């Protein structure tokens, strides 16, 4: 219940944060919203010597449009992402997903950047970002770099972020005019996703012109359901047609088995949720 | 040790705290606000819910140092001049509490949910309370209380 | 009608809002963890991470030297003082009770068992130091199921016992007219009737009260004072004295505000023993508050039974015999009630039905898991689940409507009082009325029609209806019956009603509320009895110095037994006051009437108020001969019998066959709990009880992995549902008063939980019958439901 002791820094600029992190070596953890980190510290699953709190780095927070790109500061809380008209317009499925994270209190503190950097395979932020072809802007002592979402999520709780790097921004190409839906399956409302599906769909003349589908908790990282995406090109947004396409949703995945379900069950869920998410996205 | 200044229920408090001290511990142990309680270790139960700058948060998942310079409202800061907040009154009227342990957190979250949604449906109230566990009431009277409070313009 | 006056009841039956609320809704609470004492030290526990091992060594040096640490205490250190934690129920004379040290000395038998204790100046320092205690464990094989525990060649948890079986209890019942015992009846049915067998699982649950357990012991006064978040301050005091050899008069136990119990705080715990011993040893107040992780791991668990039921019936569905075989998992040690918990179900498997013969065969066994004990319903939910699942399954087998099968077999209204095959006399009940009302509220016929339609069109979302017609035995309990069952304590309850000189009232009760609203309900009862204002009554409880006599709160007993003690005590006050008033009025007591709080001489307008009489009794200037000063009544009630609430619960569930998700579409309960003192409180108990039963059906299970580690060790994995996961239920009542106590009340604390679990599971199974599903193990997670559908399709 009580974390182990640590030294604490609360920088007010990103540069200062990077310097502090570099100085602390690998004994430091970055504190974003704290909704994943603090439980870890309380259970003493981790005992970092230094904590660098990004909570006072105002430049990391906020939603804006940069030409055709939606830009969300890493320290923007889920509640703000979910409530933002700008996000809803450009990235509907991300807006929906943010509204499903945990519960309202957690959404007031937890951040999109923290969630993405934490890379829990059952977390909801990676799937919409991956589906929409997002990019992560990372800042370190060597400067700023941009990592495509495709290359960012490496393994369970492991991303392309170096120990001395901070995730600063999430950039998503605008999907204005696309439908989007995040279908999330849990046993109780505040639970981590057992399986979830992020779907973004562009319809043209009554058919699906293009679909982007990503799966939560079907492997050690978020995955794109590329076989489904291909099968949906030009498809009629009907139950029968989408069902056939969605049947491939679990292809190439390696879902976990745990007390919430075994791999078979998750594979089944993936197909069902993909169908439902795509149909909802096509209709929205 | 770090020095923090936190406004709690209208009073300013300056204290020395270890960075690892959770906001809920600061409230309970350092400034004697024992109305806010701890129910779990994993940010699930919501019994520790307070308002931080006017929004509901789980005070077990905020460090006291993160509250430096900010405003906290606890269950003990709701009643004004001895008059109960309409949500407190509604809980009482609707028998929305039994043992009372989850109640402060539940009330604080219920007030917050009405900020975003002043006239929620039954399901919207239920969804808005997904982060607060109660073992005694079965929630039915809590939902009733929140809707009654909404009608009363809470 | 009250017990003492002819005036109409003003308070009893009223929807009084609770006196308890104001402090609770404003945060002016007195949870044990809020308390502190000067110089107080903090305790943290070193707990075994392994499920079964001998302890090689416990190295405390580094911990002792850590900042702020005052002492580190091991099992060896406490070996001479700690004695054994008590078990108070020998369900058989041969029951094996292993010694249970609070701090393990040479062996740990479940993950979470305490192996050392750190005492420090702050809670953080204590927590830091437990990581420095180095314990050497030599692993032993782990036994995780009663089947494995009772098998030949099993690893024996308590070698001195030579077995993992604690007790084997067989109760054989038959009615007078029966052709023989249950074997004979089953034999007969196998020839010209039906024999129907089923096995069901009662999963292991965790009571998960919202307030983690906390205790503070102050040894510095004349008495050793222990504040503890307990349901049982009186029982705890006696057992602390007996087990630790402390003089009982030197002990005071206080239960301050207690945040829920549900049977989970009905325990005498290692943590409490340790806190007292350590405080005494150090001569300083010591506090221990558990974390939620510790609570889920080490506070006692509930349920955990394998059940096998054999039903004998005639071809037309009339039941004749029932055989019940249970294996109940006790965990690593025998708890306070231990095997008594499943034994309470012994009398309830026959439920509301008329059997000729019935056998209850229970084996209790040890496993390397947390100990088990009472959890809301304590043996009766398990029994009701077994019989109500069986009846729904049997109805399906016969092609009969499940309500029709119930009606065919239940005790008819005109047959009360009725003595069941298990030897209990049910005083009153009306299953017909409750069921008719439930059907009406439920829209039974419309829902059946919808079910048929969905089946016809093979809708991926199927509808099911589940029935639970329950009764329960509560108001625990007549002391002589407890004695006959070899339970070590009695079942009485005590109250004092005290008129203060200024006319205000103190009601002292031995009941120990932890959310049930006794302060309000007892005030209502006393207000009517004494003709005093509801707001002028203070109810005192939970402190052995203030309420010295009591048997505490559990088993839905407080209103039935404790409330009756208040009635009886108030009657004595009125009786004595009448004599004093008569003397003051210079009349004969026979000519004095009591109404609306005043004593008057019949036919005149001369009167004295209760307050005036109270002051006169205090001043004692002129009391009649033989009457002692002060005005107080004292009563200890030992119930003659149990009480038998009953009801009909109907549940409609939708099952999404694609995902296995079960959603409750409609839940209706009609409960008969006799007369109602406070309808609001009663409804609250029903809501809360039903939800815990739904949670067993759909969400909760304490799961261990093969090494004996509790995987569901936090609320992330042990799924206590929130408001978002639950339906709104329709509740109603019928009222068939109890004939066995003056208020006609039956108790309601556990009824909702007892009823609801089978209603929900029956509904889900009913939805999936066309899919070849006839049972699903609880909790009905989507995964399990989906798997059952896949397996059913393969059949």
Using brief descriptors, characterize the structure shown.
heterotrimer, A: 284 residues, Uridine Diphospho-n-acetylenolpyruvylglucosamine Reductase, domain 2, Uridine Diphospho-n-acetylenolpyruvylglucosamine Reductase, domain 3, Enolase-like, domain 1, five-stranded antiparallel sheet, four-stranded antiparallel sheet, C: 795 residues, Aldehyde Oxidoreductase, domain 4, Aldehyde Oxidoreductase, domain 3, seven-stranded mixed sheet, five-stranded mixed sheet, 21 helices
What would you note in describing this structure?
The complex is a heterotrimer of chains A (284), B (154) and C (795). Chain A has helices at 14-24, 37-42, 78-83, 85-90, 92-100, 104-109, 112-118, 126-131, 149-152, 226-232, 239-246, 263-283, and strands at 7-9, 28-31, 50-53, 63-66, 69-73, 135-140, 143-148, 153-155, 158-159, 166-173, 179-185, 195-204, 207-216, 223-224. With 284 residues, chain A is an alpha+beta fold. Chain A has three domains: 7-51, Uridine Diphospho-n-acetylenolpyruvylglucosamine Reductase, domain 2 (2-Layer Sandwich); 61-173, 2-Layer Sandwich (Uridine Diphospho-n-acetylenolpyruvylglucosamine Reductase, domain 3), CATH 3.30.465.10; 181-283, CO dehydrogenase flavoprotein, C-terminal domain (Enolase-like, domain 1, 2-Layer Sandwich). In chain A, a hairpin with a 2-residue loop joins strand 6 and strand 7. In chain A, helix 11 (239-246) packs antiparallel against helix 12. By secondary structure, chain B is α+β, with helices and mostly antiparallel strands. Chain B has five helices and five strands. Chain B has helices at 23-30, 86-93, 103-116, 122-128, 140-151, and strands at 2-8, 11-17, 49-52, 55-58, 71-73. In chain B, 63% of the residues are buried. Chain C is of the alpha+beta class and 795 residues long. Chain C has three domains: 21-27 and 492-637, Aldehyde Oxidoreductase, domain 4; 38-141 and 212-258 and 265-298, Aldehyde oxidase/xanthine dehydrogenase, a/b hammerhead (Aldehyde Oxidoreductase, domain 3), CATH 3.90.1170.50; 302-476 and 641-794, Aldehyde oxidase/xanthine dehydrogenase, molybdopterin binding domain (Aldehyde Oxidoreductase, domain 4, 2-Layer Sandwich), CATH 3.30.365.10. Chain C has 21 helices and 28 strands. Chain C is globular. The model of chain C has no long low-confidence stretch (mean pLDDT 96). Chains B and C meet through helix 2, helix 3, helix 4 and helix 5 of B and helix 1 and helix 19 of C.
């Amino acid at each position: 219940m009580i974390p182990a002791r640590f030294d604490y820094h609360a920088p007010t600029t990103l540069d200062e944060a990077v310097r502090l992190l570099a100085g602390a070596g690998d004994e430091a953890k970055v504190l974003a919203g704290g909704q994943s980190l603090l439980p870890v510290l309380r259970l003493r699953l981790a005992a970092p010597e230094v904590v660098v709190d990004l909570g006072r780095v105002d430049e990391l927070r906020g939603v804006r449009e940069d030409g055709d790109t939606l830009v969300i500061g890493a320290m923007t809380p889920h509640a703000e992402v979910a409530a933002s008209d700008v996000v809803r317009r450009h990235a509907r499925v991300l807006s929906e997903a943010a509204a499903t994270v945990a519960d309202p209190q957690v959404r007031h503190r937890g951040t999109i950047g923290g969630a993405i950097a934490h890379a829990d395979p059952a977390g909801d932020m990676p799937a919409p970002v991956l589906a929409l072809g997002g990019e992560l802007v990372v800042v370190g002592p060597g400067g700023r770099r941009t990592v495509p979402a495709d290359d960012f999520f490496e393994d369970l709780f492991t991303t392309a972020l170096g120990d001395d790097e901070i995730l600063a921004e999430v950039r998503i190409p605008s999907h204005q005019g696309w439908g989007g839906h995040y279908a999330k399956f849990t046993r109780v409302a505040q639970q981590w996703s057992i399986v979830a599906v992020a779907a973004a769909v562009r319809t043209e003349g009554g058919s699906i012109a293009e679909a982007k589908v990503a799966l939560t908790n079907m492997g050690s990282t978020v995955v794109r359901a590329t076989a489904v995406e291909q099968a949906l090109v030009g498809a009629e947004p009907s139950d029968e047609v989408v069902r056939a396409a969605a049947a491939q949703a679990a292809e190439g995945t390696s879902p976990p088995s745990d007390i919430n379900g075994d791999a078979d069950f998750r594979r089944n869920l993936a197909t069902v949720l993909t169908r439902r998410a795509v149909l909802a996205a096509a209709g929205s | 040790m770090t020095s923090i200044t936190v406004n709690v229920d209208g009073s300013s408090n300056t204290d020395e705290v270890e960075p690892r001290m959770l906001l809920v511990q600061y409230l309970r142990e350092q400034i004697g606000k024992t109305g806010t309680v701890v129910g779990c270790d994993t940010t699930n139960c919501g019994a520790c819910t307070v308002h931080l700058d006017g929004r509901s948060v789980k005070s077990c998942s905020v460090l006291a140092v993160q509250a430096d310079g900010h405003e906290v409202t606890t269950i003990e800061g709701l009643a004004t001049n001895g008059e109960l907040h309409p949500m407190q009154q509604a809980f009482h009227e609707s028998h929305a509490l039994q043992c009372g342990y989850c109640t402060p957190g539940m009330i604080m979250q219920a007030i917050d949910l009405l900020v975003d949604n002043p006239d929620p449906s039954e399901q919207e109230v239920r969804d808005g309370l997904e982060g607060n566990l109660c073992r005694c009431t079965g929630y039915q009277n809590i939902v009733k209380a929140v809707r009654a409070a909404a009608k009363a313009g809470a | 009608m009250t017990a003492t006056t002819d005036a109409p009841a003003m308070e009893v039956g009223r929807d009084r809002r609770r006196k308890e609320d104001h402090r609770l809704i404003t945060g002016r609470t007195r949870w044990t963890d809020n308390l502190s004492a000067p110089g107080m030290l903090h305790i943290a526990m070193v707990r075994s991470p392994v499920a079964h091992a001998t302890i090689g060594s416990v190295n405390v040096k580094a911990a002792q030297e850590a900042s702020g640490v005052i002492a580190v205490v091991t099992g060896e250190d406490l070996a001479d003082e700690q004695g054994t934690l008590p078990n108070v129920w020998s369900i058989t004379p041969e029951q094996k009770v292993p010694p249970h040290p609070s701090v393990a000395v040479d062996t740990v038998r479940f993950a979470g068992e305490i192996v050392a204790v750190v005492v420090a100046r702050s809670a953080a320092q204590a927590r830091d130091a437990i990581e420095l205690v180095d314990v050497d464990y030599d692993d032993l094989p782990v036994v995780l199921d009663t089947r494995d525990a009772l098998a030949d060649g099993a690893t024996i948890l308590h070698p001195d016992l030579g077995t993992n079986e604690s007790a084997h209890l067989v109760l054989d019942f038959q009615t007078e007219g029966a052709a023989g015992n249950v074997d004979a009846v089953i034999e007969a049915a196998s020839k010209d009737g039906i024999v129907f067998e089923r096995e069901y699982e009662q999963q292991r649950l965790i009571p998960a009260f919202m307030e983690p357990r906390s205790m503070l012991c102050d040894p510095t006064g004349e008495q050793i004072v222990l504040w503890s978040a307990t349901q049982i301050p009186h029982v705890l005091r006696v057992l602390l004295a007996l087990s630790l050899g402390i003089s009982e008069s030197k002990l005071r136990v206080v239960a301050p505000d207690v945040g829920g119990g549900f049977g989970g705080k009905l325990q005498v715990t290692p943590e409490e023993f340790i806190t007292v011993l350590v405080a005494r040893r150090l001569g300083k107040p010591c506090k221990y508050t558990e974390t939620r992780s510790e609570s889920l791991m080490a506070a006692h668990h509930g349920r955990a039974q394998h059940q096998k039921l054999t039903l004998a019936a005639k071809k037309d569905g009339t039941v004749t015999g029932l055989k019940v075989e249970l294996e109940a998992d006790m965990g690593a040690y025998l708890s306070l009630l231990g095997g008594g918990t499943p034994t309470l179900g012994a009398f309830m498997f026959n439920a509301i039905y008329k059997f000729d013969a019935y056998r209850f065969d229970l084996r209790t066994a040890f496993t390397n898991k947390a100990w088990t004990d009472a959890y809301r319903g304590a043996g009766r939910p398990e029994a009701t689940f077994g019989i109500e699942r069986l009846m729904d399954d049997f109805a399906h087998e016969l092609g009969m409507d499940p309500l029709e099968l119930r009606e065919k077999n239940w005790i008819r209204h005109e047959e009360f009082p009725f003595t069941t095959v298990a030897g209990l006399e049910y005083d009153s009940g009306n299953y017909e009325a409750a069921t008719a009302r439930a059907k009406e509220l439920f829209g039974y016929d419309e829902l059946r029609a919808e079910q048929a339609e969905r089946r016809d069109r093979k809708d991926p979302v199927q509808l099911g209806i589940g029935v639970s017609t329950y009764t329960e035995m509560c108001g625990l309990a007549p002391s002589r019956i407890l004695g006959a069952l070899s339970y070590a304590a009695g079942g009485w309850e005590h109250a004092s009603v005290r008129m203060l000189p200024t006319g205000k009232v103190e009601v002292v009760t031995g009941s120990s509320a932890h959310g049930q609203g006794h302060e309000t309900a007892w005030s209502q009862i006393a207000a009517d009895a004494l003709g005093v204002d509801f707001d002028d009554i203070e109810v005192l409880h939970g402190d052995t110095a203030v309420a010295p006599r009591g048997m505490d709160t559990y088993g839905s007993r407080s209103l039935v037994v404790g409330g009756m003690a208040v009635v009886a005590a108030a009657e004595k006050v009125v009786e004595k006051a009448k004599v004093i008033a008569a003397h003051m009025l210079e009349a004969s007591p026979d000519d004095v009437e009591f109404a609306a709080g005043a004593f008057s001489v019949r036919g005149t307008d001369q009167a004295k108020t209760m307050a005036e009489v109270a002051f006169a009794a205090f001043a004692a200037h002129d009391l009649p001969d033989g009457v002692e000063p002060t005005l107080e009544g004292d009563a200890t009630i030992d119930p003659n019998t149990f009480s038998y609430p009953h009801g009909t619960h109907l549940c409609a569930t939708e099952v999404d066959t694609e995902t296995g998700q079960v959603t409750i579409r409609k839940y209706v309960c009609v409960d008969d709990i006799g007369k109602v003192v406070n309808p609001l409180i009663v409804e609250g108990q029903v809501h809360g009880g039903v939800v815990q039963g739904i949670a067993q059906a759909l969400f909760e299970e304490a799961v261990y992995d093969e090494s004996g580690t509790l995987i569901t060790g936090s609320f992330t994995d042990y799924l206590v549902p929130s408001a978002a996961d639950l339906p709104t239920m329709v509740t109603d009542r019928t009222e068939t008063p109890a004939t066995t106590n003056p208020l006609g009340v039956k108790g309601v604390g556990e009824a909702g939980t007892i009823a609801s679990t089978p209603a929900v599971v029956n509904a889900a199974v009913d939805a999936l019958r066309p899919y070849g599903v006839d049972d699903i193990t609880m909790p009905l997670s989507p995964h399990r439901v989906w798997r059952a559908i896949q397996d059913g399709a393969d059949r």
